[in-house]
Amino acid sequence: MTHEATQITSPTKPSEILLHLGPQHPLQPGPFLLDLKIEGETIREAELKIGYIHKGMEKVFEDRTYLQILPLTDRICYLASNSNNDVYCRGVEELLGIEPTERAKYLRVLTNELCRLQSHLLGIGEYATDVGFLTMFIYMVREREGVVSLLEAITGSRLNHNYARFGGVANDLPPGYKEMALKTLGELKKQVKSHDEMLSSDSIYLRRTKGVGVLTAKEAGELGVAGPPLRAAGVEYDLRRMEPYLVYDDLDFKVITQTDGDVFSRVKVRLLEILESIYIIEQCLDQMPSGPYKQDVTPYITRPKPGEVYARIEDPRGEMGMYIISDGSDKPYRFRIRGPAFATAQALPPLLVGGYVADVAAIAASMDSCTSEVDR
Amino acid sequence: MAIIEIYDIIMHYLVYIFADNPFAPWIRGVLGGLVIGAVFGGALVMVYLERKFLGDMQSRIGPNRVGGRFGVLQLIADAIKLFTKEDIIPAKADKWLFIGAPIVALTSGFLMVAVIPFDLLVIKGNEYAVAVSRMDISILYLEAVSGLAIFATFMAGWGSSSKYAVLAAFRNVAKMIGYEIPLGITVISVAVMAHSLDIVEIVEAQSSIWFIIAQPLGFVVFFIALLADVGRIPFDQTEAEEELVAGWATEYSGMRWGLAFFAEYLHAVVGSFIVTLIFLGGWNGLPIVGNLYIPGIFWVIAKTIMVMMLFIWIRAALPRYRIDQVIDIGWKVLIPLALLNLVWSTIIGLWWA
Q: Which of A149, A232, A265, B251 has the fewest CB within 10 Å, making it most exposed?
């Protein structure tokens, strides 16, 4: 397997045809073009073309004040909006040399894990429709509804949360939140366990997913893939464990890994991570200290000292990093986003070659890429 | 019982109208039209049931706006929408194949309806089958006519000049070749056991024991092959939305798409009828009703609806096979099992005879 960007060649044999999946196709979470050269049902070559919804976010960020950037980080990928807020805030906090309050750290971990829950639930649901299992999609969306309501109760919005602030968070927990959260999460835990059982025992599902689209640990490393696809290949790579940010030091959790690296393992990792995230949230709710949830003084116009910083976080989909260079003004001099979905997207074409057309849907959805983030 | 007497009197007059007077052939023609209309309505019922029942299984509500709480008029609204939509024929399409495909699909469905009996009336020693036409080779005829549907798929796939449609058509042809064989062998097993190719006699042969009990393996093989034949989950590779957009109907729009869609449901309904008739005892009722007289047509329709429910249930419960796995199952599993069942039914059939 080579990892150079391969250009697809035009068909030479009469039995080969060129199939353009996209830019509009039911398979896709957003517009991209997947060119496939197929012979019968077998894929011979694959090429991914992206950039249909390029928003020029990095350039836009360089023309905004630090506070104005904050809500825009939501829009990088709406399923990971909390993580994006958090990683951006940690970067700026490092530039400013301030530290969030202890309670704010817990609140951020709490919302980050809720964000992971809803992202994984929707990811598995979309994936389930792609293997023709519509019922599982509806179940997952039903389960996700409760999690999104929990996020709404804290942040005030269901989609683009814009919750973290420099040195704290936007607001405190509403009264009675703990009981409400424990009730919803207890129900969710039960449901996810039963869905996991269903997906692990369905013979048709196993035949569709076992040994399909295997991404080995070595290939994943070369392509920069992190998150569930890498952990499914057996690598215990999790930023929450490797360089614990916020309060992950004080929390007890396992890094979920599987060994095979196929479609089945990737989804299994997500399912088990949901259970693990619920465990983390329960600990957060128990251990959360009282105290202020934000710094006393957060200036409207922030002027960090000149310097540069790279902050990274374990996103629901992998490793999200933001590189900020400050020249002392109220706007960043340079802003660079290293998104997890871009890496998983570029891992897609090599996985498809040699497989069947029917596997495209299963493999692409199991990578859980996000076009909005790829084209940020 | 009074009800039985009334029923008998009505039947007597019906038989006079439909069989014993000089105008009977014309009247039977009208009746045939009505039966076809009824099955057409049955397909509508299946679409509605599917949406409602599937909704229940997936913890959704399903249609709930048009026509009251239960959305009973939703289908009519959909039909109006389909009729008023623009009918697009792609510029590069093979026009006649493109137009012909839904017609062939529907024709195949209606031709199948023609031999489906709903009941057998025995009055004064004469047998009258409630069917558009009673043939002595009706089960073979059904098999032959249902095979026509594949032409519609391929015409549509080829005529649309769309790659998705062509791929779906190829898949469908490959699938049908693999699955018509176990379907045919199972039908032969049934015919061997009933000593007849006439569906009416096949049903009559089940008056003591239904064939689902006499040859359970045959039922399983037939049912799976039928699922593949009518293209429902887990065998709906030909219209796998995430891979091939809408399969062979990708380029269709408006009422032409509606007809293609409807033809599929018609095939599913007729398939349910066939399962009812050749495995579930047709109009032979269950003994649980005791002395209560229930017309055979009720049993046929009730059992057919049960089979349709089973189709919908399977759709809600299972993901989709990949096409190569489907072909594998057809050739490597179903055909050997069907042959085994043929041996079994031959032995049992001879022993009974």
A: A149
Contact A266, A228 (CB under 8 A): yes
DSSP state of B128: E
The pLDDT tens digits for A76-115 are 888 888 889 999 999 988 888 888 888 899 999 999 999 9
Amino acid letter, residue A157:
S
Reported ipTM: 0.80
Residues of A with Cβ-Cβ distance to B319 under 8 angstroms: 128, 131-133, 136, 202, 204-205, 208
Q: Are A237 and A228 in contact (CB under 8 A)?
A: no
> pLDDT of B132-157, one tens digit each?
777 888 888 888 888 888 888 888 88
3-state secondary structure of A322: strand
Q: Among B250, B320, B328, B333, which would you mutate to test the A interface (most chain A Cβ atoms within 10 Å of its Cβ)?
A: B320
Contacts of residue B26, defined as CB under 8 A and 6 or more positions apart, other chains included, come to: none
Measure A20 CA to nearest chain B CA, in Å: 9
What pTM value is reported for the model? Answer: 0.85
Distance from CA of B321 to the nearest CA of A (A): 6
Domain topology for A57-374 = Cytochrome-c3 Hydrogenase; chain B (1.10.645)
